[in-house]
């Protein structure tokens, strides 16, 4: 089980998370944690923690900014990796792009199939070329 699968298993089991100031966390109820899940958490603990924090921040931002969860910018594998690496700057940039996603799509004439790529310079919106651009 990889880090993402471990995180999904925690969510699917409805486990409660208690996070400490030192970034350690405890899950409850302990009776719902299988030996396989416990081993996966131990193996991928930093990545699982980053996924928990990232998803909590996205949910909080969605509520606070009244963002549509169904209209979030799609993530690229690079963006997901930035989350898993615990890059908070990438997450903040993603939320800012999400806030203006409709306007960005309209300005770029994007009908779909676009992705966000995170790198050391920020976020890059990648979209398929139009017929005019391909010529």
Walk me through this protein's architecture.
This protein is 54% helix and 13% strand. By secondary structure, the protein is of the alpha+beta class. The protein has 2 domains: 1-52, no CATH class; 67-135, no CATH class. A two-stranded antiparallel ribbon has the order 1-2. Strand 3 and strand 4 form a beta hairpin. The chain is elongated and about 50 Å long.
Count helical runs: 6
Total E-strand runs: 4
Biggest pleated-sheet summary: 2 strands, antiparallel
**Low-confidence segments:** none
Mean pLDDT rating? 75
| Cα shape | elongated
Task: Tell me the count of domains.
Answer: 2
> Could you give the distance between the termini?
45 Å
Q: If you compute it from the alpha carbons, what radius of gyration comes out, rounded to the nearest whole angstrom? A: 17 Å
Structural class: alpha+beta
Instruction: Report the order of strands and helices.
Output: HEEHHHHEEH
Strand order of the largest sheet: 1-2
Query: Which range best describes the helical content: under 10%, 10-25%, 25-40%, 40-55%, 55-70% or over 70%?
Result: 40-55%
The percent range for strand residues is 5-15%
Spell out the blueprint of helices and strands:
Elements: H1 3-12, E1 16-19, E2 25-28, H2 35-65, H3 77-84, H4 88-99, H5 101-108, E3 115-119, E4 122-126, H6 131-134
Antiparallel strand pairs: 1-2, 3-4
């Amino acid at each position: 089980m990889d880090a993402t699968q471990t995180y999904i298993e925690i969510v699917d089991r409805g486990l409660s998370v208690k996070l400490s100031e030192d970034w350690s966390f405890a899950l409850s109820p302990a009776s719902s944690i299988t030996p396989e899940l416990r081993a996966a958490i131990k193996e991928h603990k930093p990545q699982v923690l980053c996924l928990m924090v990232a998803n909590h921040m996205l949910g909080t931002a969605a509520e606070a900014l009244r963002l549509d969860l169904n209209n979030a910018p799609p993530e690229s594998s690079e963006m997901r990796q930035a989350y898993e690496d615990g890059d908070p700057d990438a997450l903040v940039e993603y939320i800012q792009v999400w806030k203006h996603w409709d306007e960005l799509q309209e300005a770029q004439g994007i009908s779909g199939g676009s992705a966000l790529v995170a790198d050391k310079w920020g976020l890059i919106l990648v979209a398929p070329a139009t017929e005019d651009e391909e010529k």
